[in-house]
């Protein structure tokens, strides 16, 4: 892949703007919160844009099942759902940074 002169100038001519956008992006990652759920809402897990779990809610019904394996499956599914949603949010936000490299 070759980079023409205009692309190079656009990339590095806007270096301070790129740096500011990257810092804003990092702050926005922390501000993103998404909730994944499983079992029709029996388990809800909230994560931020950095993948940190900020909240776990498990319905009393899960405990009443008395089935550890089912609870583990629901927790894993809710976590994976939350992470997938967070990734989609991050990808949408990343377009702000990639505009400098077009």
Number of strands: 3
Poorly predicted runs of 5 or more residues: none
Form type = elongated
Helix content: 55-70%
> How large is the count of helical segments?
4
Query: Which whole number gives the mean pLDDT?
Result: 85
Strand and helix order: HHEEEHH
Q: Give the terminus-to-terminus CA distance.
A: 13 Å
Strand percentage lies at: 15-25%
Radius of gyration: 20 Å
> Strand order of the main beta sheet, please?
1-2-3
Biggest pleated-sheet summary: 3 strands, antiparallel
Class of secondary structure makeup: alpha+beta
Structure, explained:
The chain is an alpha+beta fold. Helices cover 62% and strands 18% of the residues. The protein contains four helices and three strands. A three-stranded antiparallel β-sheet has the order 1-2-3. Strand 2 and strand 3 form a beta hairpin. Helix 2 packs antiparallel against helix 4. The longest helix has 31 residues. The chain starts with a helix and ends with a helix. The model has no long low-confidence stretch (mean pLDDT 85).
